[in-house]
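User: Good morning. I'm curious how inosinic acid would be positioned relative to this chain. Could you predict the structure with it bound?
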Amino acid sequence: MSNKVGTVLFDRKQLEERAREIGQQITEDYKDSDKEVIFIGILRGAVMWMTDVLKNVELECSIDFMACSSYGSSTKSSGVVKINKDLDSDIKDKHVIIVEDIVDSGITLNYLKSYLANHEPASIRICSLLNKASGRRCDIEADYVGFEVDDLFIVGYGLDYDQKYRNLPYISYLND
Ligand code: IMP
Ligand code: MG
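Assistant: Good morning! Here's the predicted structure, ligand included:
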């Protein structure tokens, strides 16, 4: 791999293990609910995490995807969220679980959560692979978090820098 990529923070085995724990936790939390659960993956960063978690969810659930961007390809969020792909499903009266790659500033999820709340779901929770608490600029927290990360620019296992490194089977960071 390019020398821009640092050492491994979380390897394939750790990621699979955490996805299993969280998939089992979600199963436990919703197994007695009489309402449908829908997972909404945020393209493109959440894709690997979402598939690994879903393999461990034993519920009759459905999935959908949204895509949004905060402009530009820099390593900092611009603060302006734009929806590039909207939901295809009706989420009214369903339990929504938003699946995201990372909560950094929280601007994206803060916006998405209130956007989805307008569709009158039964509930909304957030399942994020990573939490970068040091980056937070909004009052928002994920309900299910894979791992805490420090103030580094993370790549791999879905996360990109300028659309690259998403295919790494592990999580690393960029050397500046
Ligand atoms: P927010 O700052 O919480 O709104 O995060 C917005 C989006 O920026 C996330 O969904 C990621 O796609 C991306 N992002 C934030 N921090 C990182 C990072 O460390 N590596 C790669 N992408 C990131
Ligand atoms: Mg991204």
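The chain has three helices and eight strands. The longest helix spans residues 12-30.
Let me know if you'd like a different ligand tried.
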